[in-house]
Amino acid sequence: MTNSELLQYCMSKPGAEQSVHSDWKATQIKVADVLYAMVHEVQERPAVSLKTSPELAELLRQKHEDVFPSAHLNKAHWSTVYLDGNLPDSQIYYLVDASYQQALGLLPEQTRQQLSV
């Protein structure tokens, strides 16, 4: 999977907006100003940082060498995943969906209704 393929998937979510974080050389994907994905390169490899529960983050990191704590975000909740590693694309898409759902959970009910989610 490439960064552009993942970015396209992230942007297909209702209310998704992208911006560039120039200091980190990353594309941030937010829903109503809540970050749910950061697409970037780590050690010249395509990667995405996603939010999960601390328990899932720890489990993924133990089982997959291509998943590790995010450098610039809360390491308990945010993991970075290499897109060109051994984690199946389907699992990466699942993690994007889960991160998006967590972001939605932080939004007021009225905002969620406006997004029809």
TrEMBL record:
InterPro entries associated with the record: YjbR, YjbR-like_sf, YjbR/MT2646/Rv2570-like
Membrane-crossing residue ranges in chain numbering: none
Pfam family, one: YjbR
Domain of life: Bacteria
Name under which the protein is recorded: MmcQ/YjbR family DNA-binding protein
